[in-house]
Amino acid sequence: MPEYESHATVNATLASAVASAGTFLVGYPAGYDESMFAEQGHKLSVKNGGDYISPRDFTVSFGNTGATVTWNDSLTLAAGTELWVQLDVKGGDGDVDVRQLNAGRVGKVYPVILNLGAPDAPDVDGIFESASDTGAHTITLDGALLADGVVTFDVPRNIVVDSGGADTAVLTFTGTDEYGVAVVESITLNGATAVQGKKAFKTITGVTSSATIANGAFAGPGNVLGLPIYLSDADFIVTEQEDGAAATAGTTVAGINAKQTATTGDVRGTYVPNSTPDGDKNFSIVVIAEDANNTGGTQYAG
Questions:
Q1: Which partner for 198 in 41, 132, 174, 265 could form a disulfide, CB atoms 3.0-4.6 Å apart?
Q2: Spatial contact of 264 and 256, defined as CB atoms under 8 Å apart
C-alpha cells in the first residue's frame, strides 16, 4: 500500500481528440478510490504543452471506476496527446493515513473557525448613488465608500443593485477579492426591485452599463458575507455564533466548483447571518473543511 500523499498522479494518452466541454476518463492509482479526492485543486500537464488547473481550465468528477475530466480550455487536445492529471487528495497535508484504517470508510477533514467580523449595515448607494446612462456606459463611482477612486468594503461582501424605475441594463462591476485578486461580476437591474450579487468583493474599481439607464440606478454592499476559504458543502457548518453565543441559523452557499463566469457564485462560498449586520454584531462560523488552505478556484476577471 503506498504511503499517504497530498496528491495522486495519473498518466494517460487520449484515444480521441477532446475539444472544449469534451470529456475523458482516467483511472485511479493503486490504493486510491473516489472517496479520497478533494473537489478541486487538481492540475493537468500536457506533454510538450502547458500546465492547467481546476476548476479554471478543467473540472473533475469522481466515479466508481475512475475520474471524468471535463476540458474547459479553448485548446483542442489532439488524439494521441499524452498528459498527466494530478488529483488532489483530501487533507493531504495531515498526519493521519486513512488507508491504514478501512479504505473508503474514513476521510480526513478539519474544523476551522471563520471570523467574519462585525460588518457595517448594508449601504444601498455606497458604491454609486444615482446613475443615469445615455450612451457612455461608464458609471461614475460617487458613493460614501469611495476614497481615492476606489470603493472599499469593510469586509468581503456582495453587491446589491437597484433603480428608481423600469431599468433593465446589465451592470458589470470590476474590483478585487480579499486577497487582492481581480473579480468581475455582471448583475442585471430589475426595475425598482433590488437584485443581490453573488460574489464577495473587497474593492470596486469600476462599473459599466450595457444599456441606457433612465431612472437613477444605485448600488452598494449587501449583507452576504464572503468566506476566507473554500466551503465545499453548506451542510459542513458545525455551528454559528453571534457575539460569542449560538446564533439562529443563517443562509450559506457553498463555493462554486466550476469554471467561473461573470454571473456564477463565489469561488469560496458566502454566509448571510440571520441578524442583519449593523457594525456592532460580531459573527463567526465553525466549518468542516477538506483542506483548510484552499482559497477556492480561479476568479473570473473578464
A1: 265
A2: yes
